[in-house]
What does this fold into?
Amino acid sequence: MRPLFSAEARRRLGEDNPKWYIKVILQGICTFLAFFALILFAAAVDLTHRHFRSPHGAWTDWMPLFPVLISLIYNPLTFLLPLLLPNRKPLHPGWDVGVHLFTWALGIPSIVFSVGLGWFWWWQPVLVQFGDFIPCRQWNYWSEPCNPVIYTAGKLEIAANVFLALLIIFTFTLFVLACIATHRHRRATKTARTATRNIQLQYHRSPEEHAAAQEPLPAYTPRSDEENAVTVPGDGAPKYS
It folds into this structure.
């Protein structure tokens, strides 16, 4: 079976993060969660604005879509780049730190507003009923038989918030991994810079010039049995070394 990433892409991905495959798996999970959260939030917002005027402002309805969209765009992009451009150097891990931190920080208030101002808080049982007749003017206005739209919207919001909560958790995990990769990248860069400086101070030339000036090692050529044979004085039989 042909691997998904080429050998060159795997080598470049492993330079900053030896466990890059864990990052790829988490990015795939975040993409899956963001996709379904986007559909559910969009359906809930559309249903709300088609039947009601939002009681808490349109910006709080649309706010959860922003972290979801960022995750849905950025994670597949960083996943596909090594596949489409295997010889290209991977993105600096600092990008992952910034994007995942921003997504996580934006997701926290989004889920707070979405849960705190959700339609499911308006649900109520039927309080007054005369046989099969349910009056919907006062006491039963927010019950499901009288106002089924808010129940559909509330269920969509609950499902969307579950996906958003999981997305926030996995995004924070990606942020931690990106911080570790950034620290490793900085340490490797500092080590390479120190080695370059040492070569420049010791040999007064660049590392490339120093590598070009090194004499190549002679190629190994196996010797024949006659060349390995050693004749011991006093004994006509050859000895082999």
Remarks:
- The mean pLDDT is 76.
- The first helix runs from residue 7 to 16.
- Helices lie at 7-16, 20-51, 58-62, 65-84, 93-116, 148-203, 207-213, 225-228.
